[in-house]
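Weekly structure sync, notes
Attendees: PL (lead), two postdocs, one rotation student
Agenda item 3: pending single-chain targets
PL asked that the sequence for the first pending target be pasted directly into the notes so everyone works from the same version. It is reproduced below exactly as submitted, 64 residues in total.
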Amino acid sequence: MEEIGMIAGKVWKALESNGKMTVTKLTKETSEKKDQVLIAIGWLLKEDKLDVTAKGKVTYYNLK
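Predicted structure, written out during the meeting:
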């Protein structure tokens, strides 16, 4: 669980620096595995820290 918290911190920092991003871009930016990034996104969503928008088939995540 501690590891996911650290990855959630990396996701937060990436979004803070770059603005809205897709899972693919977050995976590259954080250098973490896609499934770990998705779990971290879920954590941040549960904590109500992210906004989610979709354009067509692409989903974007951004800080609130």
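Discussion points:
- The helical segments are 2-18, 23-30, 34-46.
- Residues 2-63 form a domain with the Arc Repressor Mutant, subunit A fold (CATH 1.10.10.10).
Action: rotation student to compare against the earlier draft before next sync.
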